[in-house]
Amino acid sequence: MKARTALGALIVVLGTATCVRLGFWQIERWHEKRTMNAAMERAVASAPFLLGDALPSGAEIAGRKVRVLGRYDETRQVLLGGRVQARLPGVEVITPLLLPGDSTAVLVDRGWLYAPDAAHARPQEFIEPGPRAVTGIARAFAPDRGRLPMLALERDSVTLWSARALNPDSLRARVPYALATFFVVELPGPRVPGKPLRGTPRPLDEFMHVSYAIQWFLFGAILLGGSLALVVSGRRSRREGVGAPLEDR
After folding, report:
1. SS in 3 state form for 139-204?
2. What is the pLDDT confidence band of residue 241, given thresholds at 50, 70 and 90?
3. Is-above-0.90 flag for pTM?
4. Is residue 146 scored above 70 in pLDDT?
5. CA-to-CA distance for 80 and 161, rounded, in angstroms?
6. Cβ-based neighbours of 180, under 8 Å, separated by 6 or more
7. What is the pLDDT of residues 220-230, one digit of tens each?
8. How far apart, in whole angstroms, are the C-alpha atoms of residue 70 and residue 129?
9. Cα→Cα distances 80→43, 45, 56, 157, 231, Å
10. For the segment 119-132, what is each residue's pLDDT rounded down to a tens digit?
11. Which helix (H) or strand (E) holds 225?
């Protein structure tokens, strides 16, 4: 076998193997998301775990349905910009929920508000004063990406910050109390105001991984099948060329 032919065969084999491996990886991701969606459905349907003074870590409580008692510090809120709801631009309203004693707070995602520019809104128009019992899904914070920029929108009786993602390190220096290592996405329910708009967690897109897996398997089949077809075609052409009469050559 010529070196050039051997190199071509090696490239085809490696390319096909890579496509097949990527296809199986997408299937693994599909199973992971199915498991995560099933766990979320169970969490939403379960009885909430009542959080006390000794708060668990984000890793311990993430994904569980919880119930926490306190009062909102509505003088300090964060607006997470660029959130779309029913194709409308808006923000997610993050409000600290002060626990009894006012020394610790849990950040609560109180839901979505319409914002024409997907950045500015007025959550102070939808106050929730007094003691609150918040029921929702606990979420761990995203991996530390450093202190993300937070833009102060206004400073009167209320301080609002605008950010693209929620990072507690960017907020701890701006509030006079400790923050839990997780936040809570509040669920809709009785006595929960309609605005900001709460919603049940959206299931993760599972089908996209099935589609990607099919594409990778097809790429592998096309690469291998096409290469074999070229080899067979080339050999047939050479045999026909060798066996043809001289006058036809």
Report:
1. EECCCCCCCCCCEEEEECCCEEEEECCCCHHHHHCCCCCEEEEEEEEECCCCCCCCCCECCCCCCC
2. low
3. no
4. no
5. 9
6. 55, 58, 104, 105, 106, 107
7. 999 989 888 88
8. 10
9. 25, 27, 25, 20, 57
10. 889 998 999 999 99
11. helix 207-243
